[in-house]
Amino acid sequence: MSHDPTRKHFFAKIIGLIAAAGLAPRLLASKPAQPAPTPVASGGIELRPETRAVARRADSV
């Protein structure tokens, strides 16, 4: 019995490798870590724009 490779077997192997390469990262990837809870502002801190900031001109950038 001879096992001569055929085009059909060649393309089947190539398509299988492409499918495995596409699915492997999804199967091996771990679940993303849940983001840390954002701290709740206590109301004592207020964000304000910097009054000493230098305004940039359009031609200086």
Structure overview:
- The protein has 61 residues and is an all-alpha fold.
- Helices cover 36% and strands 0% of the residues.
- The protein contains 1 helix and no strands.
- The model has no long low-confidence stretch (mean pLDDT 77).
N-to-C terminal Cα separation, in Å?
76 Å
Class from secondary-structure proportions: mainly alpha
Give the percentage of residues in beta strands.
under 5%
Helix count? 1
One letter per element, helices H and strands E, the order comes to: H
Instruction: Return residue spans where pLDDT drops below 50 for at least 5 consecutive residues.
Output: none
Mean pLDDT: 77
* Mass-distribution shape: elongated
Number of strands: 0
Fraction of residues in helices? 25-40%
How large is the radius of gyration? 30 Å
How can the largest sheet be summarized?
none
Q: Brief description of this entry?
A:
The chain has 61 residues and is an all-alpha fold. 36% of the residues lie in helices and 0% in strands.
Main traits of this protein?
61 residues; mainly alpha; 1 helix; 36% helix
SSE inventory with pairings:
Layout: H1 7-28
